Amino acid sequence: MTNIRIGNGYDIHRLTEGRALILGGVKIDHHLGLLGHSDADVLTHAIMDALLGALSLGDIGHYFPPTDPQWAGANSLNLLTQVHQLIQSKGWKIGNIDSVIVAEQPKLKPHLAAMKETLGKTLGIDPELIGIKATTNEKLGPVGREEGIASYSVVLLVKST
Ligand code: MG
């Protein structure tokens, strides 16, 4: 019987005026923000999908449907907490997480440590177990034209007993 599982997640949201830019639970000063039913935190969404995927539990759209008014404007860190509780209730814990944010602007490097800290606190794990990298899309495609921000995440789960 295996005692490790791997999961991957992907998300993309559109950039628009009049919205806050929140990545990994950190509010980042920018003239555009991400559009979505919740706070549209693409990084946290990709991590949640990776956690769920590792245990074949579906995706976040299943648990937090965008048609459900109760998730309107939701803080994605609260959704992450719920997904993490589900993972723990199945007898698994996080081994490590590795993520990439793909954004043309703004420069995210100065904010990565705060994102790790915030996500680590939310998950109750050492921020050292959370890798977050930022890259541009070399001005290619919708992300390169600053129409949106995307994120990819991989997680390793370890059987907790
Ligand atoms: Mg999303």
Give a description of the structure:
There is one protein chain. With 161 residues, this protein is an alpha+beta fold. It has a single domain, classed as 2-C-methyl-D-erythritol 2,4-cyclodiphosphate synthase (60s Ribosomal Protein L30, Chain: A). It is built from five helices and seven strands. It has a five-stranded mixed sheet. The chain has a two-stranded antiparallel ribbon with strand order 2-3. Helix 1 runs parallel beside helix 3. Bound molecules: magnesium ion. Magnesium ion is lined by residues 11, 13, 36, 42, 45.
Low-pLDDT residue intervals, each spanning 5 or more residues: none
How widely separated are the two ends?
Answer: 13 Å
Main sheet: strand order? 4-1-7-5-6
Helix percentage: 25-40%
Radius of gyration: 15 Å
Give the DSSP E fraction (strand runs of 2 or more residues): 25-35%
Q: Number of helix segments?
A: 5
Average pLDDT score: 96
Number of strands: 7
Q: For this structure, what is the CATH homologous superfamily? A: 2-C-methyl-D-erythritol 2,4-cyclodiphosphate synthase
CATH-defined fold name:
60s Ribosomal Protein L30, Chain: A
Order of helices and strands: EEEEHHHEHEHE
CATH architecture: 2-Layer Sandwich
Shape: globular
Number of domains: 1
- Describe the main β-sheet briefly: 5 strands, mixed
Which ligands, by name, code or SMILES, are bound?
A: magnesium ion
What is the CATH class name? Answer: Alpha Beta
- Helix/strand class: alpha+beta
